[in-house]
Write the structure tokens for this entry.
Amino acid sequence: MSTGKINVSVENIFPLIKKFLYSDHEIFLRELISNATDATLKLKHLSSIGEANVTYGNPMIEVKVDKEAKQLRIIDQGLGMTAEEVEKYINQVAFSGAEEFLNKYEDSAKDAGIIGHFGLGFYSAFMVADKVEIITKSYKDEPAAHWSCDGSPEFTLTEADKSERGTEIILHIAEDSTEFLEEARIRELLTKYNKFMPVPIKFGTKVETLEKPEGAKEEDPAPTQEVDDIINNPNPAWTKQPTDLEEDDYKNFYRELYPMQFDEPLFNIHLNVDYPFNLTGILYFPKLGQDMNMQKDRIQLYQNQVFVTDNVEGIVPDFLTMLRGVIDSPDIPLNVSRSYLQADGAVKKISGYITRKVADKLKSLFTNDREDFEAKWNDIKLVIEYGMLSEDKFFEKAEKFALYPTVDGDYLTWEELEGKIKENQTDKDGKMVVLYASDTDAQHAYIQTAKDKGYTVLLLDSPIVPHLIQKLETSKENVSFVRVDGDHIDNLIKKEETQISKLSDEEKEQLKEVITKSIENSSYTVQMEAMDSDAAPFIITQPEFMRRMKEMQQTGGGPNMFGNMPEMYNLVVNANHPLVSDILNTKTDKKKERLIKQSFDLAKLSQNLLKGEALTDFIKRSYDMIK
Ligand code: ADP
């Protein structure tokens, strides 16, 4: 037997390890299973190149809980260690690794999130155990070794009588960590971190129901047998070649990743590069709908099939964090802070690659089956629109597949839209006017008016639309977007003939004054216009600019000064409408006011602006009129 002191410069490293990232104690299990996996795969490699004269067989890793003895054991059938190797790898290399890691990250660890996921290695066992033993037998013809350490820098190293190759780690779980003696807790951790690790992991046994033998009676119970409970899938779909997978394999893998998710993904993107960086993975487009926030944190990041995190912020462009699936890369540096990660060259390349793959996939879906793409548009548009807004490269690529739906359910590309409206939808300055609605019910009257005149109206209803059209206006030449209720249609779009006013300028001035006084509302600016006599007499509009700025602010971003401003509207009065002449010619002030109030309320009603007491009064007044 030999005893010794681990080569330490910091006497108190064990308390330090224990304190380290108190919220992340659970990662010890992942670290130990990673070591067991490495040891197993190393042996596989050695035997395949003829260096190790062993039968590799079908090794697995076993995790055992003994609540009574307060022990947790991790047993592998990997290459094992000789006493000399334990001395070297555990007492020296691993220890100095852990020490260095702690020195480096002690200060920054708490706020960095991802830090602590990697690096502590074997010694993370001391976060939950007050004594750790290693019993290990090398594949080499040497006696087994037994290492034991009780959390002080002293250790013992003796010979052991283990005869099968491999390593057994015994953790004597500390008083304050007994949660790790609960079977359910261990199962939870294994499922979280090791679900797709490349070596089968056994955790206890389970009972499996077998087929009834031929000729068995209905009431005979089906036979059962006890089998190893393997908790992981060592060959997950993303590690396979796309050519070896069917559509159903992708769907099944989605189920595996999100067992609690009942909807089907819309489509998937298989990522697979090995130069200039290594990355594999499968991304899924889920049905998104309108909600942007609920969806995040669903992509899982793995490093060589070991789960790292489901927060991929900084690695994947923000707009893609709404997708689901898996990314696996050994090239993503993990022991660094997020801001460092975002600036890292390799990570930038990865992010660019993923963006490109997603754009290519969308383009091929659009080209190969446009009808299907259109049918899915409403479920995927949020990601695409957000991507167009935030990534210039994606914006360029999206030119080919981004769709602009009309209120009548036609889906147009930008090019098609332009072809349709360039000639007949221009404003006074010759700019192409893209009319859009955000709500077909609320803006029904305005949409109808525009359609009656033969104009095309888009339906753009995502929450980020105000930002997107702002971007479209600046990146495309000579285009302006305006919501159908932004102004009266004849003011928005240039017409050949100009309307002749039936009222004189004086009469208009006079009317404007009376109306302004009667409606008693400073949020409305009265505007006299000579329009078609069949256009409504009073129309409420909301100027595009102010409304858009306010909306941009509500959804984040946009200039600050508009947020607190009150809603401002225009009350457009059609000076050519007979009712307006009637108002002018009405003798008594009282009757005049009644006509104005009723018309104003009707205009508000059509813009969904008549509420509360005003609505109650309006209804009462209307009943009085017809009774
Ligand atoms: P790392 O795995 O990052 O090298 P660790 O502290 O986890 O650091 O482990 C240190 C070393 O101890 C490993 O590199 C390996 O040589 C050895 N080791 C740890 N666990 C095992 C095991 N289960 N089987 C064989 N060797 C092991």
In short: The first strand starts at residue 2 and ends at 5. The two ends are 109 Å apart (CA to CA).
